[in-house]
Amino acid sequence: MMFLSLLFRSGRPMLTGALLTACGIALVAVWALTGGGHGAALLARFGTLGTLAGAALMTRTAYRRRHEPQPPRPETKRRTQAGTDRLRPRRHHEQGRPGAPTGGNSPQRPSPSFRTFTGLACGFLAQSGKRTVCGMLTGAGLSRLWSHDRAHYFFFCARWNPDDLGTAAARLVISLLVPDGEPVQVPIDDTLFRRRGERVWAASWFHDGSAPGPAKTGYGNNWVVLAVRVRPPMVAVPVAVPVTAKLVIKGTMSASRLWLARRMVTRLAAELSGRRVHVTADSAYAGEELKELPGNVTWTTRLRSNAALYGLAPERTGRKGRPWKKGDRLTSLAKIAAGAAFWQVTVTRYGKTETIHAYAFTCLWYYVTGTGPVTVILIRDKSRTGHDLALITTEQNPDPGQVIERYAARWAIEVAIEDAKQIFGTGQARNRTAPAVERTIPFMLACQALAVRWYATAGHHPADAEARRLEAPW
């Protein structure tokens, strides 16, 4: 029995079941030959139990191999007697074992996960139908060469990190599409990818601005998307290239969209080695997480009308005691705008150059950004009194016109998310397990970033855009 237990733990359940069945049959045969007795009856009982247990184990193993997806076997080298190298599939019990063959991860022989990634990425971009996991395999023309288990295994338990993939995509886009020395513009927003079923990981009810009807809610996975805003040569308006995303999981730290956004921005800023990063987001992305921003990151968002603003801390008077951290609380934005002296600012936004009125002042948003001074910009666009929009930025001594243009260009991420859903088919995969759900959307967004980068640097020809404008002048 100890031998059978060790054999089962070593990863050979079918062989264990066969030996157990053989031992049971042998005990029954001994009982039949002895012709009765208490000891013989006990042998018959053990033999029957062993036969049934072995048959059940073999049946269960055969069913699992037939109906449940099995991880593909990576390839490792084996030395033959002739001295040449040939490939053999690595056994499951060798995977992850210290000292086991790695499958040849040298530059001359990429890892199995990288080969699967390139195949699925090509299939994702070439597929004209549903971009599910098997749809990617079909789009790449590999459905007859690879088992669908290999594609599912890549998202379920292959060894790769979606954060590393997003960082690599961001660095590639920035190095090729953002001029050296210029700040990196990073718009952030969240979106809902609709799903069905109670077993889908992290699926719940979230706000969905695109939902029909008065109740703007939907069921699915909510993602915080980070993009890099660039200006390709073929268009006159800024384009947002989504590079990475984080899944919102209710009941955990990941339930905070601002917390997820701050983590992604912090990692990106660390990878850019000191380059300025200008983040723009809507009013939902404002909270105490902004106190932990890196020094090379500025954050611009829409200011709530009821925000508690304070004056700058007064200078020390020389008296004993703790120094002031903030000044007196300011009045409401409406009262400030009523007595402010607005000036004219010429800005280019939404494809038009126009002159608007603006007023800026420096203060503290103490309970959000701490003791760091912020700049509030009141915009009077259509109204003759008061203000139409209030922006706040952590940038020191900013140009109000540039801040207004930067926030207006945030709309590019809305277009990028719509393109991801409607054109690239992001979110059409129907994964349910936690690792697969958390990896599929970042993989698809990275493929979208690769496609945009390729077209902007190598695939674009001016005649293509001119022909398109002639065919559809509207």
Structure description:
The chain has 474 residues and is of the alpha+beta class. The chain has four domains: 2-67; 75-156, no CATH class; 168-282 and 430-460, no CATH class; 297-315 and 324-409, no CATH class. The protein contains 14 helices and twelve strands. The protein has helices spanning 2-9, 13-34, 38-67, 112-126, 133-139, 148-156, 162-177, 257-271, 333-338, 366-369, 400-408, 411-422, 434-459, 462-471; strands spanning 75-79, 85-89, 184-194, 204-207, 217-230, 239-247, 277-281, 297-302, 343-349, 352-364, 373-380, 389-393. The strands form two sheets. Strands 3, 4, 5, 6, 7, 8, 9, 10, 11 and 12 form a ten-stranded mixed sheet that branches. A hairpin with an 8-residue loop joins strand 5 (217-230) and strand 6. Helix 1 (2-9) packs antiparallel against helix 2 (13-34), helix 4 crosses helix 5 and helix 7 (162-177) packs across helix 8 (257-271). The termini are far apart.
